[in-house]
Amino acid sequence: MNRIALVTGASRGLGRNTAMHIARKGGDVIVTYQSREQDAQAVVDEIRAMGRKALALRLDVGNIGSFAAFADLLRAGLRDTWGRDSFDHLVNNAGHGDMAPFLDTTEAQFDRLVDVHFKGVFFLTQALLPLLADGGRIVNLSTGLTRVSFPGFGAYAAVKGAVEVLSVYLAKELGGRGIAVNTVAPGAIETDFLGGAVRDTPDLNGVFAGMTALGRVGVPDDIGPMIASLLGDENRWVNGQRIEVSGGQTI
Fold first, then answer.
1. One digit per residue, pLDDT tens: the chain, 251 residues?
2. Which of 28, 80, 122, 154 has the least C-beta neighbours within 10 A?
3. DSSP labels, 208-238
């Protein structure tokens, strides 16, 4: 039976790259998107061209009240596409960046970061657990900025730190079902995160490259394959860990 992974925020960036590498390793993928339906469908089409099954579903991870309806939509998609009532892997990737100095961070910015990056992960996982197969995997995305400070990312890093703690508790509480839970923490990556700031701003790119032992910032292909491998049988005994994938950004 083919394994099915649900990757949130997979129409672009790290989510898209992760979905592609899961498919290349023989998995089927459910792609979620908030507004980029065409981009999500392009991901689905590319995965199907590999001979894998894929499905795109709309999801706003910041709208906690929508999760029950999303679970129903997912249940129908699993039945219609795979003839199953469960999926195997949940990758909580969806998110956004909001960079502001501590003194300038507004309550609205703070609340949105919490809703998307922490409450969204917490309550989406809770809503989908009845559909997650025993022996499955959960991967939560964090950031290298929980271990090294960089001006303007205080609120963002704080909520990602909360996700890291949550992951450890989930690993303990879900262990009875054989579900492994880990956190992956990328360093600075060239994507459209923060409007492509690291990718498109040479000075910022250079600052992060200078902080990294391998002398450059990351690209999506540095992260997606690692997440896909974490879902494989070869890493079945990895549980409750924070795995930094940053080229040595904090050493």
1. 789 999 999 999 999 999 999 999 999 999 999 989 999 999 999 999 999 999 999 999 999 999 999 999 999 999 999 999 999 999 999 998 788 999 999 999 999 999 999 999 999 999 999 999 999 999 999 999 899 888 888 999 999 999 999 999 999 999 999 999 999 999 888 776 666 666 766 777 777 778 789 988 888 999 999 999 999 999 999 999 999 999 998 78
2. 80
3. HHHTSTTSS-B-GGGTHHHHHHHTSGGGTT-
Q: Known catalytic residue: 169?
A: no
| Helix, coil or strand: residue 193 | helix
Selection from 238, 243, 225, 229 nearest residue 147 by Cα: 243
Specify whether the CB–CB gap between 32 and 116 falls below 8 A.
Answer: no
Catalytic residue among 87, 122, 156, 208: 156
- 4-245 belongs to which homologous superfamily? NAD(P)-binding Rossmann-like Domain (3.40.50.720)
Q: Give dist(CA 90, CA 27) in Å, integer.
A: 13
Query: What's the whole-model pTM score?
Result: 0.94
